[in-house]
Amino acid sequence: MHALLSLVSPIARYLLGDLTPDKSQQIEEDALSDHHLRREIEIAEEELIAAYIVGTLLDQDRLKFETHFLSSDDRARKLKFARTWIETSGSNYPDFTSPFHRYLLGDMTSSEADELEEKFLNDGHHLGQLEAAGDELLIAYFHNTLPQYQRELFEGNYLTFISDGILHKLRFAHIMCEYVKQSSSVASLTAEKVLGDRRGWAMKNL
Questions:
Q1: Phi first, then psi: what are they for 91, rounded to 5°?
Q2: Residue 3's CB: how many other CB atoms inside 10 A?
Q3: In terms of C-beta density within 10 A (0-12 exposed, 13-18 middle, 19 or more buried), how is residue 87 classed?
Q4: What is the chain's Cα-based Rg?
Q5: How many CB atoms lie within 10 A of CB 128?
Q6: pLDDT-wise least confident of 15-24, 95-104, 121-130, 173-182
Q7: Which residue has the higher pLDDT, 12 or 90?
Q8: DSSP letters along 73-138, please?
């Protein structure tokens, strides 16, 4: 299992704005020439977002997340994806037969695809709808609520030609799965403890 982010790590503190300007600048300069460091920072960003969404980021760190961390459009888009993940849990079925879903799944003729791509060039709004459709497919796939036909197309077509953008979304989806699982485990243990304490109190007061 992937080790969850330590909130006391230098990268976490950097992202939350806790490091001195000199130390922050050093990380940024190192990241320009260090691919592994850039990847580490990207993963830490996604883990902070996951922790925030599932409620394990608390108190001052939560405030710093809201006031400092959410300073870029890219992080805001990732937060939107994470919120959709939690709010729908893949259970609210969109219309997977819409042109945008079918395009992503490779489930349309060449002429239909060409026509839709022409719309992308002429109207940026359609690109936003396409991205939303991709998020819906990914969330439904990971929650195992994607209908069988679309699931086969997703695995056979969508995942066959993985771009950097799709790869990042897949990584983020795995991170969301782990944080939701961890959050559920903590909630379950807390509930068991509360019930145990109540049973103990009841036995003492019989």
A1: -95, -20
A2: 7
A3: exposed
A4: 21
A5: 11
A6: 121-130
A7: 12
A8: HHHHHHHHHHHHHHHHTT-S---TTSHHHHHHHT-S-HHHHHHHHHHHHH-HHHHHHHHHHHHHHH
Kindly report, residue by residue over 42-66, the tens digit of the pLDDT: 999 999 999 999 998 988 999 999 9
**pTM of the full structure:** 0.78
Token duo for residue 105: 């799944």
Tokens of 139: 């969330």
How many contiguous H segments (helices) and E segments (strands) does the chain have? 10, 0
Which letter does DSSP use for residue 57 in this model? S
Of the candidates 70, 31, 26, 72, the one whose C-alpha atom is nearest the C-alpha of residue 48 is: 70
The HSE-up count of residue 3 (CA atoms within 13 Å, CB side) is 4
Position 118, amino acid: E
